[in-house]
Amino acid sequence: xxxxxxxxxxxxxxxxxxxxxxxxxxxxxxxxxxxxxxxxxxxxxxxxxxxxxxxxxxxxxxxxxxxxxxxxxxxxxxxxxxxxxxxxxxxxxxxxxxxxxxxxxxxxxxxxxxxxxxxxxxxxxxxxxxxxxxxxxxxxxxxxxxxx
Length: 148
Hints:
By secondary structure, the chain is mainly α. It has helices spanning 2-7, 31-47, 53-74, 113-119, 121-140. It has one domain (2-140). Helices cover 49% and strands 0% of the residues. The relative contact order is 0.14.
């Protein structure tokens, strides 16, 4: 579970190097990137005969895919390039507004971007719902104590 949770934020690492909110969707926001990384990790795990690499790589793959799915559902300024490198098209469920994402990443939590982000209440509550479901699952599946 910790690997899955940490992996779910990995696609946003590109935000540290991006000049704008809309510009932070690099190759890290494409499924092909994580499919290749997963494949390489499994391959290396087999070569070095380390059985721990496979479940770790699966956790990384699932966490990053969960991130991409939630970005696709709740996109505001940029969609997900599901078919990259075969297509550069952004896919999204609700209409995006790329012009609203032309501000520095560090200004996301301020107005005017924050107000724009909150405009679509449905998307906001979907995100809150995903967070609450995750919290419930974490507490429901936590170890009940030390076993001998």
